[in-house]
């Protein structure tokens, strides 16, 4: 980009942040600040695209498959569908209202940015259900369970990729897992057993059984969409800016960090002799998008490896709330 335009963008940002009193930035500082702004803007655009696609997909799954056939799903969406079927209250209203306590919990435990995105995503889903006319695809119960769950799960998964949720159940599960000996999977399972038991009693056993198939289809699709990420993800980061990344993880994201001392080998810039600090941390899958954004702001060439972790015990994962902006 033209250096003058780059400087203008950075100065405008500094003005909006009321940083005019700071010393004039060097050209290197301006370039670094501009890179941060560019990365933030790009990731924001990607998040919006993921969330919008998630809203459309979830709305399609609900209105084209589940609602016309009185099927339900697990989680908050399942409670909303069950309540709507029994009381005739509009589903869009119930989805927003029932998610409110979970969103408040998300604000306090995960962060403001996550909570705001989730509020907008859930309100967007409610608006889509009110305004978009989706066709009824089929009345075959097996197809409804399979594809209704698929499109609903795809919508939830895409929203998670965008740093938001359309269903607040996982927020509750992550919070309770820190306070109890239960895993996130255990808590979600207990929550859904209660919902499907209620569906069997209030609707019919057949509807409850098909709804369990819907939930299984949605659950597997969510895992597929977010690339098989389990409840916790171990992240290894190799970068020449390891100290900045360590500070970001501990101060901005509230995460514990382990530092390994490694030896350089060969890379894109031929032989790189010497040692390097390797950063390791554990995050939840709801924080993956934010971590990638923050690391890219510091070092676009950082090498990141992620591994699925079934569960963790101790440390900062369960002993303190997640901190976020």
Automatic annotation (TrEMBL):
InterPro entries from the entry?
DUF2179, N-reg_PII/ATP_PRibTrfase_C, UPF0750_membrane, YitT
Any transmembrane segments, and where? 44-66, 86-107, 119-137, 143-166, 187-213
- Where is the protein found, in the record's own terms? Cell membrane
Principal localisation: membrane
Q: Name one Pfam family in it.
A: DUF2179
Keyword Nucleotidyltransferase included in the entry's annotation: no
Span of domain DUF2179: 255-314
Q: Which UniProt keywords apply?
A: Cell membrane, Membrane, Transmembrane, Transmembrane helix
Does the keyword field hold Membrane?
yes
Membrane topology, as annotated: Multi-pass membrane protein
Q: Which CDD domains does the record cross-reference, listed alphabetically?
A: YitT_C
What is the name listed in the Swiss-Prot or TrEMBL entry for this protein?
Answer: Membrane protein
Q: Which organism is it from?
A: Adhaeribacter aerolatus
């Amino acid at each position: 980009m033209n250096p003058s335009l780059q400087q203008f963008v950075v100065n405008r940002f500094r003005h909006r942040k009321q940083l005019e009193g700071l010393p004039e930035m060097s050209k290197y500082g301006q370039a670094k600040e501009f890179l941060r702004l560019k990365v933030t803007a790009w990731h924001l655009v990607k998040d919006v695209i993921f969330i919008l696609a998630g809203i459309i997909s979830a709305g399609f799954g609900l209105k084209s498959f589940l609602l016309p056939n009185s099927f339900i799903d697990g989680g908050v969406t399942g409670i909303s569908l069950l309540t709507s079927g029994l009381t005739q209250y509009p589903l869009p209203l119930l989805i927003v209202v029932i998610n409110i306590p979970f969103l408040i919990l998300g604000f306090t435990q995960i962060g403001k940015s996550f909570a705001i995105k989730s509020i907008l995503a859930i309100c967007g889903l409610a608006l889509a259900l009110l305004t978009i006319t989706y066709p009824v695809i089929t009345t075959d119960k097996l197809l409804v369970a399979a594809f209704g769950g698929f499109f609903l799960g795809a919508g939830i998964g895409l929203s998670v990729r965008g740093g938001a949720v359309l269903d607040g159940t996982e927020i509750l599960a992550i919070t309770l897992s820190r306070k109890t000996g239960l895993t996130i999977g255990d808590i979600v399972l207990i929550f859904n057993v209660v919902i499907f038991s209620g569906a069997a009693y209030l609707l019919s056993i057949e509807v409850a059984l098909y709804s369990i198939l819907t939930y299984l289809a949605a659950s597997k699709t969510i895992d597929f969409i977010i690339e098989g990420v389990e409840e916790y993800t171990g992240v290894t980061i190799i970068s020449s800016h390891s100290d900045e990344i360590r500070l970001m993880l501990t101060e901005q994201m509230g995460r514990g960090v382990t530092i390994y001392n490694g030896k350089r080998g060969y890379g894109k810039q031929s032989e790189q002799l010497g040692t390097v600090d390797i950063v390791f941390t554990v995050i939840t899958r709801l924080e993956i998008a934010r971590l990638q954004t923050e690391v890219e702001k510091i070092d676009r060439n950082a090498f990141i490896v992620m591994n699925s972790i079934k569960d963790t015990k101790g440390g900062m994962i369960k002993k303190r709330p997640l901190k976020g902006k």
